[in-house]
Specification:
Blueprint lengths: L1 H25 L15 E2 L12 E2 L6 E2 L6 E6 L9 E3 L2 E7 L12 E8 L5 E8 L19 E3 L2 E5 L4 E6 L14 H6 L15 E6 H5 L12 E3 L2 E5 L19 E5 L5 E4 L17 E5 L2 E7 L4 E6 L11 E2 L2 E6 L28 E3 L2 E7 L9 E7 L4 E2 L5 E5 L10 E3 L2 E5 L4 E6 L5 E6 L9 E3 L2 E5 L4 E6 L6 E6 L9 E3 L2 E5 L3 E5 L8
Parallel strand pairs: 1-31, 16-20, 21-25
Antiparallel strand pairs: 2-3, 4-37, 5-6, 6-7, 7-8, 9-10, 10-11, 11-12, 13-14, 14-15, 15-16, 17-18, 18-19, 19-21, 22-23, 23-24, 24-26, 27-28, 28-29, 29-30, 31-32, 32-33, 33-34, 35-36, 36-37
Length: 522
């Protein structure tokens, strides 16, 4: 009697195994912000939710009562302000925040924090908790925390801190001991003029440190921010060099804007010599993307002078004997006036009319997509999305543009490109869908609230949050279709992330791991 039942069950069993195998094949970590190299805001994850309920606040604990939530795996408390987009790797979730809700009651006040959680449960594992950088006025804005997303490879995480240090971290923290060669975490945690703090098992383990303000004279405006790009043994890092606090000049225009470090030691291997410094009009917060263009692989860097630079990557065996100079391949001036004017002077003032690149360039099918923008946080309104041919040489300002779109307005975001469609957010609260090949606009959706976060496209859906505490899920495609709008517990400045079948939604206060419930059986 068992044989017929087993025979009937075999097709179902095979189907289940195939589905599971497909899910396992697609499931993957998200070890850096954006797709590897290209920075495209897409994910191959599937089975992601089209709706969820974040739950209600537990008045006794101040956390979230998971019994009132739906399709929420776990919630982890962050600070009071969170700009960092999480990354997921090595069984852990890493996210930059501030110290608004101290994990260690002995370390209070305004500080920069990177928190590390267990991916499976959301259990807090360790933190990098650093004092503010106070000697450079406005370089480390009040309550902004650590805004950079780390990049993880194996048991190492590479991060730009709120103090402008590039650090290599042990993903295990101090739980397996202080590995070194850097052994001075206690002094670093305490800050200048303070007695070193006692380092415990829930503190970060720094393996090496490169101090950009001291070693390069790179002085940021508002924040040091960069998602480090890892290629082989090399790290490509935006130094965040910017204007001083009056917005009228750059203190160290000779300082590099882009550097390359040895991932094993933190040694400076190369720097740019592109002449960016004098024309920076605010800060520099973009990150390097990489794309294959014909028979070349190029790096792409959006600078604070409003220029997108393509440059040659260093060879794997680049010399460490002297600091190399990065070689530019081409440049595109992103101010619209540069299409007709030979020179567009930099406008050094608070309400600057100059353009900059705040989001990251995205490489897709031999083209580069990038938003050039005025400063939306200074209430400047103008920006445009430009599609460029990634080939060429020299100054390609008037030759590389394939199409442009000024309907997006000012925007600090990075685009997502999937199945030939570009999705881009404007700071004014609108989400735009365009044809990647032609720039044709298919639809514009008003999401009712400033959009600082970039859109994520995954599993046929678009995920994006707003400054008005709303998280929106839309269907991807040429027709606009809003699937759900979810009221969250705080503002959303970080991009949603998908990894290993889980969607991560970050508000200013909490990190949500959202997972679709298994479908009910027949």
């Amino acid at each position: 009697m068992l044989l017929p039942k087993l025979r009937n069950a075999v097709p179902l069993l095979i189907a289940v195994l195939l589905v599971c195998a497909g899910g396992w094949a697609r499931a993957a970590d998200q070890p850096q912000w954006g797709e590897a190299d290209t920075r495209n805001m897409v994910s191959a994850e599937s089975g992601l939710p089209s709706d969820f309920a974040p739950g209600e606040r537990d008045l006794a604990t101040g956390g979230v009562d998971l019994s009132t939530a739906r399709q929420v795996k776990w919630v982890a408390r962050l600070g009071q302000t969170t700009y960092g987009t999480p990354v997921v790797a090595a069984g852990r979730v890493f996210v930059g925040t501030n110290n608004g809700s101290p994990r260690d009651p002995q370390i209070a006040g305004d500080r920069g924090v990177l928190m590390c959680f267990e991916e499976a449960s959301g259990r807090f594992l360790w933190q990098l908790n650093l004092p503010k950088l106070e000697r450079i006025k406005w370089a480390d804005w009040a309550q902004i925390g650590i805004t950079s997303s780390p990049t993880v490879e194996g048991d190492r995480a590479y991060l730009v801190t709120n103090r402008g240090e590039v650090v290599c971290l042990d993903v295990n923290g101090q739980a397996d001991g202080n590995d070194g060669p850097f052994l001075d975490e206690g002094r670093l945690m305490a800050g200048e003029g303070e007695s070193p703090r006692q380092v415990g098992a829930q503190d970060a383990d720094i393996l090496w440190l490169f101090d950009m303000p001291r070693q390069l004279q790179a002085e940021a405006h508002n924040a040091y921010n960069c998602s480090v790009l890892l290629r082989g043994d090399l790290l490509y890092v935006n130094t965040s060099n910017g204007v001083e606090w009056t917005h009228t000049f750059v203190v160290h225009p000779e300082a590099p804007s882009l550097i390359v470090l040895d991932k094993r030691t933190g040694q400076l291997v190369a720097r740019d010599d592109f002449g960016i410094g004098p024309d920076i009009t605010h800060g520099q917060w973009s990150s390097v993307a990489v794309g294959r263009v014909g028979d070349r692989t190029l790096g792409f860097f959006g600078a604070g002078n409003g220029v997108l630079y393509a440059f040659e990557l260093l060879p794997p065996g680049a010399s460490r004997e002297t600091v190399q100079r990065l070689r530019p391949a081409w440049k595109f001036h992103g101010h619209p006036l540069a299409q007709t004017q030979d020179r567009v002077p930099a406008d050094h003032q608070h309400d600057s009319t100059s353009y900059q690149v705040t989001g990251m360039p995205v490489c897709y099918r031999n083209r580069v997509y990038v938003i050039f923008t005025q400063e939306p946080y200074h209430r400047m309104k103008l920006g445009w999305l430009v599609c460029l041919d990634a080939g060429g040489a020299g100054d390609v300002t008037r030759t590389a543009k394939r199409w442009s779109y000024d309907g997006i307005g000012a925007s600090p975001s990075t685009v997502a490109i999937a199945e030939g469609l570009v999705y881009a957010t404007g700071f004014d609260g609108r989400l735009h869908c365009l044809d990647a090949e032609t720039g044709q606009v298919y639809w514009v959706q008003d999401l009712d609230g400033p959009l600082a976060a970039s859109p994520l496209v995954a599993d046929g859906k678009i995920y994006v949050g707003t400054d008005r505490q709303r998280f929106h899920i839309l269907a991807a495609g040429k027709q606009p279709k809003l699937l759900s709008t979810i009221k969250m517990d705080g503002r959303i400045s970080a991009t949603a992330v998908a990894a290993n079948g889980v969607l991560y939604v970050t508000t200013w206060k909490n990190l949500y791991a959202v997972q679709a419930s298994p479908a009910a059986g027949p």
